[in-house]
Design goal:
16 helices; mainly alpha
């Protein structure tokens, strides 16, 4: 028969193994205890966390749900169940769980962030904006909320606001090619072409295989009549993807404008 002392010993050993990265050994101890039905709240939570980390979201969700049946005010279990449901693409249930957490703790940052992501994905941008802005009020250096606001404003074509938040996010992660590329698109939306070119080049400095940046840069240089430079970027794109037929046509157009007629004909063919 399991006593509370034995349960605590098992939990402490399982936690020690988990903290050492020995998930299989920890899970084995926790599962043996779980099968007896004599479980502590902590043991069930740790077992569910391990299943979540192993991406077994259905099993993790089952255990988090069981915790909530026994301990309905366990906010971390409710939040964690929301994470599982989100991974399982059940955003409606995830949204309900995050809102449930926020009713008890309006400043639960992780629930605010994930709720904001669901709201943004389901075209409720104003509500999502409120979630992310509240996070920034609670934690002015919250990278995820700052980045999410940038993404939200870019989606809404509010390029000036998006640019402001992306530049703030860039301070935390200056080598992030996605942020650099998005900043370039903010400048492009404002028709600030010099700045657009600058940030597209910065994107390619960080990731030379960023094809979207290469294509945008080539197209913009072509549009501005800088055919030699545009041709150089289209050539680089074709080295990455030799089957890019549109790239060949654009390169041929560049050659035609700079009077390399024989090369233009070769690319058209």
């Amino acid at each position: 028969m399991n006593t509370n002392k034995n349960i605590m010993f098992d939990y402490n050993l399982a936690w020690k193994l988990y903290s050492e990265g020995k998930l299989y050994e920890s899970k084995k101890i926790l599962n043996a205890q779980y099968q007896t039905g004599a479980n502590s709240e902590e043991m069930m939570f740790l077992l569910a966390v391990i299943y979540y980390e192993e991406t077994n979201f259905e099993k993790a969700a089952d255990i988090f749900n069981k915790i909530l049946n026994y301990y309905p005010y366990n906010l971390e279990a409710a939040y964690s169940l929301g994470l599982c449901k989100q991974e399982l693409l059940d955003n409606e249930t995830a949204e309900r769980l995050y809102k449930q957490v926020l009713q008890s703790n309006p400043n639960h940052i992780n629930s605010l962030n994930n709720l904001g992501l669901i709201l943004a994905k389901t075209e409720r941008e104003n509500e999502a904006e409120n979630c992310f802005k509240k996070i920034c009020f609670l934690d002015t250096n919250n990278y995820n909320a700052i980045l999410n606001l940038g993404n939200l404003y870019l989606k809404k074509h509010n390029f000036l606001e998006a640019q402001k938040y992306y530049l703030s996010a860039l301070e935390f992660n200056p080598q992030n090619d996605l942020i650099l590329f998005n900043i370039s698109q903010c400048f492009l939306g404002q028709k600030k072409y010099a700045e657009t070119i600058l940030y597209l080049k910065k994107t390619l400095e960080v990731n030379s295989r960023h094809t979207a940046a290469g294509e945008k840069l080539g197209d913009l240089l072509l549009q501005l009549g800088r055919y030699q430079e545009a041709g150089e970027y289209f050539e680089k794109l074709l080295k990455i993807n030799p089957n890019n037929s549109i790239g060949f046509l654009k390169l041929a157009g560049c050659y035609q404008f700079i009077s390399k007629d024989s090369l233009a004909i070769e690319n058209y063919q």
